[in-house]
Design brief:
Length: 326
């Protein structure tokens, strides 16, 4: 429409088909070949495979900010992660700098909590990523009772009258870039006397195990909704998406208070406090906020980004479409 008059056909799609392609390399070839019209690129693809004329012949790429964070999730009912100190030990043992530089190609900012720094719900002074500190990690593990008592190089502890090893598995979707992150964690934890097995799974199987709380640790990510109350079913006690059994009565109370508060600034302060409390409890080791790296077929039009990505529509803001082919 222009000045109230229709100047071209309405371009909205009647049908959108999503193709699930597990392997990023295969998906990338499908984009270049015109079999699909858009794709979320991996950092490696953005940096090394989308810079030549061969890519730009049929495609283009777009970068923007998204409120999406990724993390290592700890099952707080498991004896290895029930103690806040052991969860913090995981965070101090992990090499965040190497992850950001080598595995994320310096494209993503570090994450330190549930709300993106650009959102109004994040504290005004979020902490940066935790720098690796093996001495601190070992101090916390010792303080929580995890010590190598038999000299085999693996920490252990008496739990309910039985000695258990600090030896666990982490579930991850079967994608190489995500497996690489977990392998880095495996290498880092070995230096503080912890054994880790990386367990790649098809996403449907992974999702089922998370819903059933059938895991010790997992790699995953969340997107922030347009209203912070949408996070309540991740962090509220016994809520549906609270896969790791996190529970803090004060966080539960604050979510309830935030739902009832209509003063904008007071409500903002409530969610900033929620962010701070959850970060202190460290039920996740937060890793990075994933920015949007999209590849599009050049015929695509109308992509406009929100914190949730380009797949949205509101009057005047745009929607994905293609010109009618003659």
């Amino acid at each position: 429409m222009y000045k109230g008059k229709q100047v071209r056909d309405k371009p909205y799609f009647n049908t959108i088909r999503f193709k699930v392609i597990q392997e990023p390399g295969v998906a990338f070839l499908a984009l270049k070949g015109g079999d699909i019209d858009d794709l979320i690129l991996t950092p490696q693809q953005w940096r090394t495979q989308t810079t030549d004329e061969d890519f730009y012949k049929n495609c283009t790429k777009v970068y923007d900010t998204e409120w999406v964070s990724f993390h290592f999730l700890w099952n707080c009912k498991n004896p290895m992660f029930a103690d806040q100190r052991t969860r913090w030990a995981m965070t101090y043992a992990f090499d965040h700098e190497e992850m950001l530089r080598k595995l994320r190609y310096s494209l993503d900012p570090p994450a330190s909590g549930i709300f993106h720094p650009a959102s109004p719900w994040a504290p005004p002074k979020q902490s940066a990523y935790i720098k690796r500190d093996l001495d601190k990690a070992e101090e916390l593990l010792d303080a929580s009772g995890w010590k190598d008592t038999d000299g085999d190089g693996i920490r252990d502890k008496m739990v309910d009258g039985k000695k258990i090893k600090f030896d666990f598995g982490i579930l991850v979707a079967n994608r190489q870039d995500r497996i690489d992150l977990c392998n880095l964690l495996k290498q880092n934890l070995k230096e503080v006397g912890i054994e880790l097995t990386v367990r790649p799974l098809d996403f449907a199987v992974l999702q089922q195990k998370l819903l059933e709380h059938s895991f010790e640790a997992a790699f995953g990510g969340w997107g922030t909704g347009t209203d912070p109350d949408t996070s309540e079913n991740i962090w509220g006690t016994d809520k549906e998406r609270n896969y790791g059994f996190y529970s803090n009565p004060e966080v539960d109370r604050l979510f309830e208070a935030g739902r009832k508060e209509f003063d904008k600034e007071k409500r903002r302060a409530i969610y900033q406090e929620i962010h701070t409390l959850i970060a202190e409890d460290q039920p996740y080791t937060w890793l990075f906020y994933q920015n949007a790296y999209y590849g599009f077929n050049k015929q695509m039009r109308g992509y406009m980004f929100s914190p949730r990505g380009p797949y949205h529509y509101s009057p005047g803001s745009g929607s994905l479409w293609k010109p009618v082919m003659q």
